[in-house]
C-alpha cells in the first residue's frame, strides 16, 4: 500500500528541469527560420554564378578599329588581299629525276638563273654517240675524196695512153665511171655528216631542257622539290612571283562602285603592320560582277615602299577624295575603342572581350576622345570584338549571345 502511494505522489511531482512544450516548439521555429534565411542569402550569392554559367546574356557587339589621319578624306573602305600580277609556275619540259636544287624558298632570282638540274648522263651519252656518227661519216667522206683523187690520177694517165694509141679506151671508161661513183659516195657521206650534226644539236637542246632556269626575275614562293624526285609526279616545280608587281585586290560593293575613280589616291593598311600606312592608287576596275556577293573586284597599286609586303597578306584599302601629303602619311593611325564598350570595374577602366561565346574582362588605358570613342593607349589589338553597353551584372567568363538585329 505504501509503495502504491509513493508511486502516485511521484507522478504528481513537477520536473523543474524539463522545458515546456511551447518553448520547445518556439525553438524549432526559430531554427527553421534561420535555416531558411541562410538558404535565401546563399541563393542570392550563388545564383548569379549559376545563371552566368547556365544562361546566355544577350549583348550587342562592337570592335576596336584603326582610324588614320586621312579619315576625313575617305569616300569608301574595303578589304582585300595582296596578290602579284606577274607570277610563274615553273615546270619541266621533259620527265626526269632531279639531281640538283640550287635555290630555296624565299630566294630572289634573276631571269635565266639556274634553279634545278635533272639527271643527264643518258643524254650526254646519246650526244657522244651522235658525235661519233658525225666523225665516222666525215671519215667516210674523206676516204671517198682520197679515192677520187687517186682514181682521177689513174684516169689522166690512162687518157694519155689512149690518146697515144698505146692502150684501149675501155680501161679509161672504167676509171671515169669509178670517179663518178666515188663522188656520189662523197656526197652521201656529206649528207650523213649533216644529219649526224643535226642529231647532235637536237640532243644538245634536250640536254638544255634538263637545266631549269627562271623565266622571270622574282622571289621563290614555294619550297622546291627534293633531290631524287621525278618531275612527272609534280604539277609544277617552283612558283615564282615578281614582287614589283604586287597589288591589292579588293571587293567593292556594287552599290558603291561609283565612289571609285581610276587613278584616285588610296591608303593601304596591312593587317600585319596596322601602324603603317602605304600610299596607293586605283589601278583597275574588274569587268565582272560577283552576283553572289554583289561586289566588283578593284585592283589597287602600291605606290610606296613595298618592304615587308608579301603575297596573300590581308589589307584594308581606303579610297580617298584627295591626295594626302607625305607628312600626313607618316602619321600612324590611332587605335580607337568605342566609348560604349568602356566601363568602370574595381576602380579601373575595362572592356569585355567576346571570345568563343564567352566574355573576358581586360583592363585598358585610354587617351583623348576620338570619333565617338577613345584613343586606346594600352589594350587589345584592332579588330577585337567587344561588348557594347555591357550590363552591370556581366561577369568574367559569362556565356553570351549576340542580340538579333531588328531589320524592320
Q: Would you give an account of this structure?
A:
- The protein has 408 residues and is an alpha+beta fold.
- The protein has four domains: 54-67 and 334-402, conserved putative lor/sdh protein from methanococcus maripaludis s2 fold; 71-86 and 244-330, Efflux pump adaptor protein, beta barrel domain (Elongation Factor Tu (Ef-tu), domain 3), CATH 2.40.30; 91-118 and 212-240, RNA polymerase II/Efflux pump adaptor protein, barrel-sandwich hybrid domain (OB fold (Dihydrolipoamide Acetyltransferase, E2P), Beta Barrel); 121-208.
- The chain is built from five helices and 23 strands.
- The chain has helices at residues 2-12, 21-54, 121-164, 169-208, 326-330; strands spanning 57-63, 65-67, 74-84, 87-90, 98-101, 108-109, 114-118, 211-213, 218-220, 238-241, 246-253, 265-270, 278-285, 295-302, 314-320, 334-338, 343-345, 348-355, 358-363, 365-370, 373-378, 385-388, 400-402.
- The strands form six sheets. A six-stranded antiparallel β-barrel has the order 3-11-14-13-12-15.
- The protein is elongated and about 165 Å long.
- The N and C termini lie far apart (102 Å).
- The relative contact order is 0.18.
- The mean pLDDT is 82.
Amino acid at each position: 500500500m505504501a509503495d502504491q502511494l509513493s508511486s502516485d505522489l511521484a507522478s504528481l511531482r513537477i520536473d523543474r528541469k524539463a522545458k515546456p512544450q511551447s518553448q520547445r516548439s518556439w525553438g524549432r521555429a526559430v531554427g527553421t527560420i534561420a535555416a531558411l534565411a541562410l538558404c535565401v542569402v546563399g541563393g542570392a550569392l550563388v545564383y548569379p554564378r549559376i545563371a552566368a554559367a547556365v544562361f546566355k546574356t544577350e549583348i550587342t557587339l562592337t570592335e576596336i578599329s584603326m582610324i588614320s589621319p586621312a579619315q576625313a578624306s575617305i569616300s569608301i573602305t574595303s578589304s582585300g588581299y595582296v596578290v602579284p600580277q606577274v607570277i610563274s609556275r615553273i615546270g619541266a619540259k621533259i620527265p626526269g629525276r632531279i639531281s640538283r636544287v640550287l635555290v630555296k624558298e624565299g630566294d630572289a632570282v634573276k631571269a635565266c638563273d639556274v634553279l634545278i638540274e635533272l639527271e643527264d648522263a643518258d643524254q650526254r651519252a646519246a650526244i657522244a654517240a651522235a658525235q661519233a656518227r658525225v666523225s665516222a661519216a666525215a671519215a667516210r667522206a674523206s676516204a671517198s675524196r682520197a679515192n677520187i683523187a687517186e682514181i682521177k690520177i689513174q684516169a689522166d694517165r690512162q687518157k694519155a695512153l689512149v690518146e697515144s694509141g698505146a692502150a684501149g679506151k675501155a680501161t679509161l671508161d672504167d676509171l671515169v665511171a669509178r670517179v663518178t661513183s666515188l663522188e656520189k659516195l662523197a656526197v652521201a657521206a656529206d649528207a650523213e655528216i649533216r644529219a649526224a650534226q643535226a642529231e647532235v644539236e637536237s640532243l644538245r637542246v634536250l640536254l638544255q631542257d634538263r637545266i631549269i632556269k627562271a623565266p622571270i626575275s622574282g622571289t621563290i614562293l614555294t619550297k622546291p622539290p627534293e633531290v631524287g624526285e621525278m618531275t612527272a609526279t609534280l604539277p609544277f616545280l617552283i612558283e615564282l612571283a615578281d614582287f614589283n608587281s604586287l597589288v591589292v585586290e579588293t571587293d567593292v560593293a556594287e552599290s558603291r562602285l561609283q565612289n571609285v575613280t581610276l587613278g584616285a589616291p588610296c591608303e593601304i593598311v596591312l593587317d600585319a603592320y596596322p601602324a603603317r600606312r602605304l600610299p596607293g592608287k586605283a589601278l583597275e576596275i574588274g569587268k565582272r560582277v560577283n552576283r553572289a556577293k554583289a561586289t566588283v573586284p578593284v585592283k589597287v597599286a602600291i605606290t610606296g615602299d613595298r618592304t615587308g609586303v608579301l603575297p596573300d597578306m590581308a589589307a584594308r584599302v581606303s579610297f580617298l577624295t584627295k591626295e594626302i601629303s607625305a607628312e600626313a602619311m607618316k602619321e600612324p593611325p590611332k587605335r580607337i575603342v568605342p566609348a560604349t564598350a568602356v566601363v568602370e570595374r574595381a576602380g579601373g577602366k575595362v572592356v569585355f572581350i567576346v571570345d568563343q561565346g564567352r566574355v573576358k574582362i581586360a583592363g585598358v588605358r585610354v587617351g583623348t576622345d576620338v570619333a565617338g570613342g577613345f584613343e586606346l593607349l594600352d589594350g587589345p589589338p584592332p579588330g577585337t570584338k567587344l561588348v557594347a553597353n555591357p550590363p552591370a551584372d556581366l561577369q568574367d567568363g559569362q556565356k553570351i549571345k549576340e542580340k538579333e538585329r531588328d531589320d524592320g
